[in-house]
Amino acid sequence: MSTHDLTTTLHQLQSHPPPSPEKISSLLSTAKRQLLQLDALLPTSSTSPEILHLARETLETGALLSIRLQNPNAFTRYFQQLAPFYELPASSYRPQGEGQRSKVTGLYLLLLLTKGDYAEFHTVLEGLETEMGAEQGQRNNGLEADRFIGYPVKLERWLMEGSYDRVWKAVGREGGPSEEFGVFSEASHAPHMTIPKPYGADDNNAEIASCSEKAYPSLPIPNAKNLLFLDSEGAVVNFAQSRGWVVKDGRIWFPLQQGEEGRTEKEILVASEQVIENTIGYARELETIVDPTTARGDADLVDLLSENDDATTATKHTYLFETDSTGPLRIVGKYGEYRRRYN
């Protein structure tokens, strides 16, 4: 079989405006059969550079169209089929080049983020870093500079940092490096492919919502809108109702956590303020500990605050720290039992 039929099918898939979803599915099935007839689904030593290039381009087109059709399973299969092609050097193809490897790989990394599959995300990233290190003699340089691969890499780093506002701004269609990346930010159209919580709308905010329930007794609706990255106060009310929160007097009231039943909002706030005061006092007292490199050589007394079990009050204890010019600080006494320890 000649490559003419496959080339014709590929041109139809890449036409503008694109065919209907039903036509695309039919053409992709036809393209796979034509690749099988050319024995080009997997690269071999006997496959010509021209057919290698055509096969890779066909699979990449299928991968990108699968994203546009919001079919992550089909996209994953195309990415797996492309893996042996991406292991070949660019010189194996005619014309030579990397094709759309960068875009397809970036989309696959972003898909892994939507699934929360961080293990596979870092496995793929490690392979890219190793390959880059082998080619350039260095690692970790260039991945973020690539506009397609750098996009999911930055999102994942911001996820770990908790920089939710930066991610929220980046996941819009205008923030993605290409149209295909914008699919992942459209929760209403592709809820199974949205950026992982807490970066999307609706139920993708579950993580922030869960933390808010534990951190606040209530929140004003405008504050909740900003905190949950929702578009309107109406969306906040709908989201609150879906989680069983009470909306009253312009505020969202969270359910009491276990152990807090019967406690009023005022009591909870007073307890929180006491814990904060204790923590600040503890940090302030720690600053008075003498640096062992500048110590006088005898014991220093330091007052510390230690919280009791219910974390609403604090007991003041005095600790004895022994210091010398070479060794670390050691606690050698407390609760008024001041004594020197000798080695």
Describe the structure.
With 343 residues, this protein is mainly α. It contains 13 helices and six strands. The strands form two sheets. A three-stranded antiparallel sheet has the order 1-3-2. Strands 4-5-6 form a three-stranded antiparallel sheet. A hairpin with a 6-residue loop joins strand 4 and strand 5. Helix 3 (49-68) packs antiparallel against helix 4 and helix 5 runs antiparallel to helix 6. It is elongated. The relative contact order is 0.05.
Please provide a brief summary of the model.
By secondary structure, this protein is mainly α.
Topology at a glance:
Layout: H1 4-13, H2 21-37, H3 49-68, H4 72-86, H5 101-115, H6 118-136, H7 150-161, H8 164-170, H9 179-182, H10 206-215, E1 218-220, H11 221-227, H12 233-242, E2 246-248, E3 251-253, H13 265-286, E4 299-307, E5 314-322, E6 330-334
Antiparallel strand pairs: 1-3, 2-3, 4-5, 5-6
Helix pairs in contact: 1-2, 1-3, 2-3, 3-4, 4-5, 5-6, 5-7, 7-8, 11-12
